[in-house]
Write a structure and sequence with these properties.
Shape: globular
Strand content: under 5%
Distance between the termini: 39 Å
Number of strands: 0
Helix content: over 70%
Structural class: mainly alpha
Length: about 150
């Protein structure tokens, strides 16, 4: 159980650091690329797109707000992790898990709503497209930062 908590915590930190370390210009560029990538992979009709994108953007904003709370309430305290008491560390972990649970609940509500708009199959394709975009982005980031080091 401790290993799972640690693994989830480290995963959370890496995700938060990656997203909050971006410049605003990079963030807008990434958002535009993500929209194009998802649009291409879902092959949305104009009616579907008209309903889909506002809901998708609202969901993204809600997730971003939770990530911001994670960053503000957890990341700032992790800087001095060695000085944390056991009780403070436990509270930090519980807060991290509460926020993860909140994100999961939000995702479930979101996917149920999306299934009504774009069908369950396209909702699965959306999940696949989001993961594919994330992998592609990380691969490009890794390649860009390690190209001159070989």
């Amino acid at each position: 159980m401790k290993k799972i908590k640690s693994l989830l915590f480290v995963s959370f930190l890496l995700t938060s650091t990656f997203f909050y370390g971006q410049k605003e210009h990079d963030h807008n560029k990434i958002k535009a690329l993500k929209i194009a990538y998802i649009t291409e992979h879902l092959n949305l009709s104009s009616n579907e797109a008209e309903i889909f994108w506002p809901i998708y953007n609202e969901h993204e904003a809600e997730i971003k707000a939770i990530r911001k709370r994670e960053y503000l309430n957890i990341k700032s305290k992790i800087k001095n992790a060695k000085e944390l008491s056991e009780e403070a560390a436990n509270k930090l972990l519980l807060l991290a898990f509460d926020l993860e649970r909140e994100k999961l609940k939000l995702k479930l509500t979101y996917y149920k709503e999306m299934s009504k708009i774009i069908s369950s199959k396209k909702t699965v394709l959306l999940m696949q497209a989001e993961e594919g975009f994330k992998r592609k982005l990380i691969k490009q980031y890794h390649h860009k930062n390690h190209a001159g080091k070989h």
